[in-house]
Amino acid sequence: MLRTPEAYRQGLQDHREVYYRGRKVDDVTTHAALGRGATHTALDYHLAEDPAYRPLLVVDEGEGAPFARYFHIPRTAEDLRRRNELIETVTREGNSFVPLVKEIGTDALFALMIVAAQVDRSAGTSYLRRIEEFYRHCRDHDLAMAVAQTDVKGDRSLRPHEQREPDTYVHVVERRPDGIVVRGAKAHTTNAVYADEIIVLPTRALTKDDAPWAVAFAVPAATRGVRMLASPRGFSATSRFDNPLSARYKTVESLTVFEDVFVPMERVFLLGEWPAAGVLAKTFVEFHRFTAVSYKPPLLELLVGVSALLADYNGIAGAGHVRDKLVSLVMYLETVRGLTRAAAAECQVKEGIAVPNVVYTNAAKHYFAVHYHDAVRAVQDIAGGLVVTAPVEEDWNAPETRAVMERYLVGTVGAEERLRAMNLVRDVTASDLGGYLEVLAIHAEGSLEAQKLTILGDVDLDRYKAFARQVAGIGGNERR
Question: Quick check: pTM over 0.85?
């Protein structure tokens, strides 16, 4: 069944243990700050009810139908292309903010299905059956899911079993006939405070001595012992005039702590099979980075649009350097989008599931991250210094100061249009949201180095070396 937005929000009123700025939150849906995020994440449920979007958001045929298209297991390149369209469209409808309550969770489910099939064959386990049952539970109840993967890691020069504080990686502290008890903490768990289920995955490759840390499982967000410390970073604004995005939307990262949490065995998807930990971590990011580069284009479209708008408003649209910056912004956008579509088209099928092309996906993510700060500089250059020096909403609302602003802050258009465009640039590039987005560009979905290593590990360099040897005439096999 498909849930209504109201049913989704009611599901979050389950006494989950969430803290915000040091205080326990009674209800994330009505909290002064967190409530904005709950309203935004309900977008998936709103659009599924809209006849104009239902064909994209809902699968109406086949086993389990109707269900949210996020849960559609990709079997072909066309399925991945459709998933890309789904994520990009929903993000655009969110004015460049992706909900991230079904996207990442289904990324994890697909990865778990692939790796579980491999582990079951090698170890004689029955993880795939458990995962398929959990998948159907989430699909058939139209649940929201978060993924907790990144351990806090402690001393990064040491492996998990070498840490002075073993809880810096989530690990098993007790095995029982009916389940396990886990302890530790995960960082950067996006929108976990708005999720029904939290899926926990390993963060890295492990050794035999790290077996207690080789664990994957899922628990409801309100499970006893699960505590979420919600970050306020990036979304402190309250004025929609001054901050048209960050005063309206909210994405919440949390430090998610597992304090002796009991996990029933049916919800345990990896338990000590340490060789599979790194494979699972890598397989998840192959899907997750595809999701990431699918939701980046609407933000880049926004940067292109507001730059072109302010070029007009400032009367500089014909200047050569401005046209050059606009062309660079457009090429940046379309390169990221083109690589993402190529990743879908050139997918690889593993265990019957289509996996986005690893090289194209990571190239898209790396290209986005490397060039984001250059794009911000171009936008700020076109917009001008008023982005950070202009009067604020209180001045606009006061008749005496508004008259001054209306007289002196005009461009090719009136002061209000120009100020609102300036405020959008400031919110995206020069506010606490702007700083949040710049750090996110570098570190979200894996670091720059992680993307380069992934590309290097997946590309077949021997093929290129063989071509070079042939052209060079090395080994007597010279090309004519």
Answer: yes
Asked if 246 contacts 92 with a C-beta cutoff of 8 angstroms, the reply is: no
List Cα–Cα distances, 172 to 129, 181, 187, 221, in angstroms: 22, 6, 18, 19
Residue 416's CB is within 10 A of a number of other CB atoms, namely 15
Q: Cα–Cα distance between 152 and 258 in angstroms, integer?
A: 12
For the chain, give every residue range classified as CATH 1.20.140.10: 296-466
What does the pLDDT look like over 429-438, one tens digit per residue?
A: 999 999 999 9
Q: Is the pLDDT of residue 290 over 80?
A: yes
Query: How many CA atoms lie within 13 Å of 452's alpha carbon, on the beta-carbon side?
Result: 6
- Domain 5-276: give its CATH superfamily: Butyryl-CoA Dehydrogenase, subunit A, domain 2 (2.40.110.10)
Closest C-alpha to 145, from 170, 111, 168, 169: 111
Q: How many CA atoms lie within 13 A of 261 on its CB side?
A: 28
The answer for residues whose C-beta is within 8 angstroms of residue 453's C-beta and 6 or more apart is none
CB 337 within 8 A of CB 297: yes
Stretch 42-61: mean pLDDT, rounded? 97
At the top level of CATH, the class of 296-466 is: mainly alpha
Given a contact cutoff of 8 angstroms between Cβ atoms, the answer to whether 125 and 176 are in contact is no
Q: Which helix (H) or strand (E) holds 103?
A: helix 103-123
pLDDT for the residue 479: 60
Q: What band does 453 get if pLDDT is binned at 50, 70 and 90?
A: confident
41 vs 1, 18, 78, 421, CA distance in Å? Answer: 18, 17, 26, 26
For residues 161 and 210, the answer to whether their CB atoms sit within 8 Å is yes
By the 8 A CB rule, do 17 and 1 touch?
A: no
- Encoded tokens for 135: 């998948």
